[in-house]
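User: Good morning. I'm curious how magnesium ion would be positioned relative to this chain. Could you predict the structure with it bound?
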Amino acid sequence: MDNGTGAVLLNMSNITMEFPGVKALDKVNLAVRRREIHALVGENGAGKSTLMKILSGVYPYGTYRGEIIFDGKTCAFPDIRQSERAGIAIIHQELALSPYLSIAENIFLGHERARYQVINWHKTREDALVYMKKLGLAENPDTPVNRIGVGKQQIVEIAKALAKEVKLLILDEPTAALNETDSENLLRLLRELRDAHGISSVLISHKLNEVAAVADTITIIRDGKTVETLEVGSAGIHEERIIKGMVGREIIDRFPKRSVALGGVAFEVRDWTVYHPEQAERKMIDKVNLTVRSGEVVGIAGLMGAGRTEFAMSLFGRSYGANISGKSLINGKEAALTSIPRAIEMGLAYVTEDRKEYGLVLIEDIKRNTTLAKLKKVAAYNVIDDSAEVREAEYYKRTMNTKAPSILQLAMHLSGGNQQKVVLSKWLFSDPKILILDEPTRGIDVGAKYEIYTIINMLASQGMACILISSEMPEVIGMSDRIYVMNEGRITGELDGKSATQEAIMRHIIQT
Ligand SMILES: Nc1ncnc2c1ncn2[C@@H]1O[C@H](COP(=O)(O)OP(=O)(O)OP(=O)(O)O)[C@@H](O)[C@H]1O
Ligand SMILES: [Mg+2]
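Assistant: Good morning! Here's the predicted structure, ligand included:
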């Protein structure tokens, strides 16, 4: 074959999987060849993660129907260990490393370099170094993994897979939390593994530009069914083509238009300065000045690690930082946002990028997650009015188009994108005047992104003041009236949303 791929390595056929009330997969087929990068794409809740969890034995044989043939053998994995033994390794989006163990220990965790029950540390280090070198990870193998960035942790996960002699590497949204440099490194690594070691990978990603750039083959699934498999070939493939397969129609304009008459300054921050919570002399945010008018969407662009999340959290009830100084004003009046409940009461809402840690209570259902930030809105005399709560939750589920069998579904059973919609519902329910959105579309499919943009526009037209933090420059440019550029905790530029370009933003980032 022209791109050097080989014979079939994996054949999953007629895979069907049902959860209570949900048919997650309906006779799905997936064929992966040796020596290829195979992208698996589809809308939120399409069934991508479920399919890969079946393949890797997370959901054991017997819980699904259909057939898996891997490396010439029919597979019936009872657990992950067995799929690993066969040569399949899965890297989940939530990394599974042990934070306090060293890089070397993590690489060989579960199959330690040992003799007579005694771990051979010397060999552990030596072998780890071999894999680290292969992957270009220049760190001391004794470093605890919580001291290296997410990008490098991702590479440790790959080293771990290589140490198990992997034939197929599965990566579930590996670049969602990575900056551009780390993402590029990771994708380069996948190519290297393919070309130098003949390792295939299955890449799940919502970043269709990287899918178009790196994949040899693309399988699209929609609503639990295989839609099509595209061969990328030497001519390449357009993102628009992938989108069409995913959503079943063409999306002409990715950013819906908004025309809102701006009101007065609704929110203002003056000389906002924040220090690191543990390292007293480390300044994280340095004299930031910012204004947002009612009806305005103000973007904050910057690279990951620029301090934008720390800034937002320090504003939102001082949930980050120490020794905070500066002023915050709402409608021109100084507002002391000294705690999260106080901030909510004053009309602030913070939609976080880290929905598992700060946005949702995973063991609660959609209903309670929706009303959580302002329970008293559905309570009388401190008792929750169940029918009022149901009514509200139903309203938001409908408005946000959240895909779940009912509002009683637990948050932990929702797909990533639908979890994000519940986080948005929760904050809209709290009736905010000032909405801070921190990477609101991370891990969200194109169709749902469009819906979220439409919701943002609707909120702005109702007079809400929105701050949009995003690392995706097209998104900041497409959605903002005005853009601040942040770098190393400082505002380094301010641009008009209509005329801003990626180059102009980059210039303000690099200048500092
Ligand atoms: N443990 C579970 N219990 C009940 N339903 C589940 C469970 N896991 C997944 N589902 C449902 O199965 C469907 C497929 O989910 P899956 O996580 O595979 O989607 P996905 O394609 O990975 O989406 P995303 O892009 O948002 O990660 C969704 O409707 C989801 O709500
Ligand atoms: Mg998923």
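The domain at 1-87+166-251 is CATH 3.40.50.300 (Rossmann fold). Residues 24 and 159 are 31 Å apart (CA to CA).
Let me know if you'd like a different ligand tried.
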